[in-house]
Design brief:
This protein is an alpha/beta fold. The chain contains 10 helices and 9 strands.
């Protein structure tokens, strides 16, 4: 089987590489950084603004996995940038893949297609009818709509996976920041946020699902949600980090209602939502249709993430 993987140097893409190293793979990224673990890899530069160069590399490809995306830009309101790089480029790539005979196209989307938050105990489901307003989420939604149309018109099978927050060794952004503060033993005023629930997925569990979707016959033209199936509160997440890092828990139990008030006064309610709100996903369709369960527990994935984090610190200090 031959594969085409975009975004192979990214967080998710680089972990997919570990599972495909024994296959014939075309690795497409912004920079052609070679992966020494591959025996049979062809490299090509992949620019989200210039997808017309991919056609020569798609001959003989069985499955395309599309991880590359514009995630963060300086102006969060600039929908045109997201549209060019996440919608137009994705659909052009998919059209080229279909015309080249690619059998299955796996698209890594986002839970933002479902929305920004859930009511406690009412998780998102893959078939929820919702149109996002967030520019990034909207661009992924529009890409999904276009991909389904291409699947109908060409017969190429499309699989859509919407992960929530993805963590694991090498994770960056807010998750890495939280781990840094917990490891330093800084007292954090987040010990009272115990009544929310958030779904997360380790990169190992996400990649396992992606690999399952490569050949599973029931994955064709389906949309799946994914998580570790172990929802956790903000306080619980920080406690889990402390355990994995083997450091004392230094959380101050300030009530969640205080954060809501403070964020309103500051004019930044989104901060309170991220800290105190819930975002849960229902993976029952994924489990039932694919006979898939997360193979790795959240505890072992957190420990693996923490060990990698500490290893990086130790190397910097040497």
């Amino acid at each position: 089987m031959n594969f085409f993987l975009t975004g192979y140097t990214g967080f998710v893409g680089s972990n997919i590489c570990n599972k495909l190293k024994d296959y014939n793979v075309v690795l497409a990224g912004r920079a052609t950084s070679k992966n020494s673990s591959f025996k049979n890899a062809v490299y090509c530069t992949f620019d989200l603004k210039k997808t017309n160069i991919l056609k020569p590399y798609l001959d003989g490809i069985d499955v395309a996995i599309h991880c590359a995306a514009l995630v963060h830009i300086t102006n969060d309101g600039n929908q045109e940038d997201y549209k060019k790089e996440n919608v137009i480029s994705t659909l052009e790539f998919a059209k080229q893949a279909a015309s080249s005979g690619v059998k299955r196209f796996i698209f890594i989307s986002t839970i933002k297609v479902n929305g920004e938050s859930t009511e406690l105990g009412r998780p998102f489901k893959p078939d929820d009818n919702y149109v996002p307003t967030d520019p990034y989420g909207l661009s992924k939604y529009e890409a999904e709509v276009g991909l389904r149309k291409i699947a109908d018109e060409t017969g190429m099978e499309v699989v859509i996976i919407r992960p929530p927050l993805v963590y694991g060794p090498g994770v960056k952004a807010n998750f890495a920041s939280m781990m840094k503060w917990v490891n330093k033993g800084v007292p954090l005023p987040l010990g009272g946020i115990k009544n929310n629930k958030r779904s997360l997925v380790s990169v190992d569990n996400l990649v396992d699902l992606i690999i399952t979707c490569i050949e599973h016959p029931k994955a064709a033209n389906q949309t799946f949600l994914v998580s570790d199936n172990a929802d956790v509160s903000t306080t619980g997440l920080l406690n889990n980090m402390a355990v994995a890092l083997n450091v004392p828990n230094r959380l101050i139990p300030i009530p969640a209602s205080w954060f809501n008030l403070a964020s309103k006064f500051a004019g930044k309610p989104a901060i309170s939502q991220r800290l105190c709100g819930s975002l849960q996903v229902d993976i029952s369709k994924t489990v039932d249709l694919l006979n898939w369960n997360p193979p790795y527990s959240s505890a072992e994935c957190m420990k693996k993430t923490a060990d990698a984090f500490l290893d990086t610190i130790n190397k910097k200090n040497q």
